[in-house]
Amino acid sequence: MPHCPDRSRFVALRSAAALLCLCAGVLWGQQPAATPNPADTLFQSAVTQLSQGKLQDAEDSFRKLVEMEPTNSRGTVGIAEVWATQKKTDEALALLQEEAAKYPDRTGLYVGIGNLAVRVGKYDLAISQFQVALDRINGEPKGSADLYLRMGEAYRLKGDLDFAINVLRKAQTLQPASPAILNTLAFTLDTAGQKQAAGEQYRKLLELEPNNATALNNLAYLLADTGSDTGLALALSLRARQLLPKQPVIADTLGWVYVKMNRVEEAIPLFREAVEKDQSRATFRYHLATALEMRGDHAGAKKESEAALKSNPSKEDEQKINELLQKIQ
Q1: How far apart are CA 153 and CA 128, in angstroms?
Q2: Residues 237, 202: contact at Cβ < 8 Å?
Q3: Are 108 and 29 in contact (CB under 8 A)?
Q4: Is 20 helix (H, G, I), strand (E, B) or coil?
Q5: 170-190, pLDDT tens digit by residue?
């Protein structure tokens, strides 16, 4: 599995609506009722409206929720998420920070600030807010695991991979069967070059979710790229392709497996498909260039390599592309 944003192997991002739902329960300082009360029903309705893009309706519902439960801040966090979806992130952060100053005991506000801070690349702020929230929930396992996961993601995005791995392992200790934690830890280990450890985590995830296309795809790429088991990589990537046939990154992975098996004629159409669907990925063009060069199409390989260099490749990919160009010339 690649280890930079340009080469991400289909890592799912949580939506604003999903983040709001994850903030529910213990992080809000209350346990969900067995039978939803009117406030819970309104909250779920607002989250649904947000997920459907009905932003004004969602904001109106969250404002009603603020009036309905003045001692709970989930309505305010919801308003901030609506504003952030409208790219008014500064206003959203200011709203939550003002609320946190007024109500310093409301854990959900710190989680909301942290989520928005990650979104705008303020990773140190995010980490500090998640830590404040963590300190306030007194070691509750599920909530602590979720906060460690968020902190781990923030550290990873910041580029502090050792810190990220350490924090994510704390999350895993608390919730060893969490698919989100397993996937994020595996991706981070792979990013850090710890391939064997990453593979172990993906295998654990597939034991829990055999049809997890992300894990199938990521493990297939890892196995193919390291040359450790191309046969298994092929089986995994074909299954991922079956589950998500329209995803360009999965087509690219299957193509890379074929390259590693010297089945270039089968790889090239897959790379062309990936490039056609997402022309901004330098990795897709580099892989296509590699396959074309293997087939002896030097002109085509040079063209795709030069296009890849114009697509903001990672430093690692840029070096590989230049090496390929030197080989062609």
Answers
A1: 13
A2: no
A3: yes
A4: helix
A5: 999 999 999 999 999 999 999
Homologous superfamily in CATH for domain 210-329: Tetratricopeptide repeat domain (1.25.40.10)
Question: What is the CA 323 to chain-centroid distance, rounded?
Answer: 30
Residue 92: in which H helix or E strand, if any? helix 89-102
Question: Using an 8 Å Cβ cutoff, are 153 and 123 in contact?
Answer: no
- 238 and 225 Cβ atoms separated by less than 8 Å: no
User: Is residue 99 a contact partner of residue 14, using CB atoms and an 8 Å limit?
Assistant: no
Distance (Å, whole) CA 60 – CA 177 = 37
| pLDDT tens per residue, range 266-307 | 999 999 999 999 999 999 999 999 999 999 999 999 999 999
Instruction: Please state, in angstroms and as integers, the Cα–Cα distance from residue 230 to each residue in 31, 80, 153, 258, 291, following that order.
Output: 47, 47, 30, 9, 17
Tell how far CA 198 is from the center of its chain: 16
CA distance 168 to 182: 9
The answer to whether the CB of 184 falls within 8 A of the CB of 148 is no
CA distance 266 to 55: 45
Tokens 């920070």, located at residue: 97
Structure token digits, residue 16: 């604003």
Q: What CA dihedral angle connects 101, 103, 106 and 110, to 10 degrees?
A: -10
Distance of CA 315 to the CA centre of its chain: 21
Show me where the domains of the chain are located.
210-329
The token pair at 97 is: 């920070």
Name the DSSP letter for residue 31. P
Q: Which two three-digit tokens encode residue 1?
A: 């599995």
